[in-house]
Amino acid sequence: MEIVITISSGFLLLVGSFLCISGGIGLLRFPDFYTRMHAVGVTDTLGAGMILAGLMILSTDFLVFAKLVMILLFTLLIGPTTSHVLAKAAFHNGVIPKGSNNLKQTKEKESTSSII
Amino acid sequence: MKHTISLFLTLVAFWLLNSGHYSLLILSLGFASIALILVIAHKMDVVDHESQPIYLSRKIFGYYIWLIKEIIKANITVVKHIWLGEKSISPTLKAIKVSQKTDMGKVIYANSITLTPGTVAIDIVDNEITVHALLYKDIESLEIGEMDRRVTLLER
Amino acid sequence: MLIAATLAILVAMILAIIRGIAGPTLYDRILAVNMFGTKTVLLISLLGFVMGRPEFLDIAIVYALINFISVIGVLRYSDTNQFKHTPKKNKSIEKEL
């Protein structure tokens, strides 16, 4: 039983760490703001989820388990909210996505939103 | 009334799980703070079906399981493209239609889009969500409307 | 394995800091700071397990909430004040004010 717990939590922590580092690499590698946001999304959802799940398996106390679940719920609630607010602020302040197939549409949206 | 009870139960669970002390003094202090929060929430007029969506609670678990599956799939795709590099991605911005009627349904849909890595909902105007996607494929799979259909089923 | 995960999180935080310093636009910096904050939450909970002190989890919860409030606060400010890049928009906002 002991060894199953060690191996499964170790596996989850390893995958979570790999996802977090990949997100960091993506944050450095991707060409513009909007694509970088997707890289951060990886670390916010599955990266944090895997690491917290690994800790949940290790926890012996029920309260510790409950607190880890709470942190996971907060992360999953907060992640999309900040991403959306950040993207909206950038979009309305004129950061135009790079390499987009429909730049014209972007500019139209931009002008309508500034009128509103 | 049922919204107040739901908020009360949430706060009681939050207090008990976070404190871990069960002496009479601590419990009464907790009860006092919960009562204060209930009064403030009623004065702010935020206790309603929007902040306490209990009517969703029966169907939402099936949706969550489906959403977690989608999130894992999307994560694998995005991580693959992070390591493949800049050449392999095709960032796209597009407005897609939504079929939900209520605000709650639209918010759930937009939040699910943002929660899935690879797609971010930027803006909602009436019946259109502006979505930025890492790959053009993601936009196409949103337009097919699997997620849209499932959220519409939720709001009934 | 716990220590390895802690080191991995630290590496991710360093990468976020590099993007925060280099980031061409303001929003890249805010994005990097936000990611730094969420990684700090994970780091604190991992450190709690490494040191055998589960009380650290309370700090992690508080840190998650503070991080959220700070990012939202900065972006609320960006909506209203002279955060905008183009001078044309600045003028129209001054008129509105």
From TrEMBL, chain A:
A Pfam family the protein falls into: PhaG_MnhG_YufB
Annotated membrane-spanning segments are 12-30, 50-78
Per the record's keyword annotation, is Hydrolase included, yes or no?
no
Q: Which UniProt keywords apply?
A: Membrane, Transmembrane, Transmembrane helix
Specify whether Lyase is a keyword of the entry.
Answer: no
Alphabetized GO MF terms: sodium:proton antiporter activity
Name of the protein in question: Multisubunit sodium/proton antiporter, MrpG subunit
Annotated organism of origin: Pseudoalteromonas denitrificans DSM 6059
Automatic annotation (TrEMBL), chain B:
UniProt entry tagged with the keyword Transmembrane: yes
The membrane-topology field of this record reads:
Multi-pass membrane protein
Any one Gene Ontology MF annotation carried by this entry is:
monoatomic cation transmembrane transporter activity
Task: Tell me which PANTHER family the record gives.
Answer: NA(+)/H(+) ANTIPORTER SUBUNIT E1, NA(+)_H(+) ANTIPORTER SUBUNIT E1
Question: Signal peptide span per the entry?
Answer: none
Q: Which lineage do the record's taxonomy fields give for this organism? A: Bacteria, Pseudomonadati, Pseudomonadota, Gammaproteobacteria, Alteromonadales
Name of protein? Multisubunit sodium/proton antiporter, MrpE subunit
> What family does the entry list?
Belongs to the CPA3 antiporters (TC 2.A.63) subunit E family.
Main location, first listed in the record? membrane
Localization per Swiss-Prot or TrEMBL:
Cell membrane
Transmembrane intervals: 20-41
What is the originating organism of this protein?
Answer: Pseudoalteromonas denitrificans DSM 6059
Spell out the coiled coil positions from the record.
none
Q: Which Pfam families match?
A: MNHE (PF01899)
Listed under GO cellular component are:
plasma membrane
Record key words, sorted: Cell membrane, Membrane, Transmembrane, Transmembrane helix
TrEMBL record, chain C:
Any one GO MF annotation of this record: sodium:proton antiporter activity
Topology relative to the membrane: Multi-pass membrane protein
Zinc is among the record's keywords:
no
Superkingdom is: Bacteria
Under the heading InterPro entries, the entry gives:
MrpF/PhaF-like (IPR007208)
From the record, give the transmembrane residue ranges: 30-49, 56-77
GO CC term (a single one): plasma membrane
| Protein name listed in UniProt | Multisubunit sodium/proton antiporter, MrpF subunit
Organism source for this protein? Pseudoalteromonas denitrificans DSM 6059
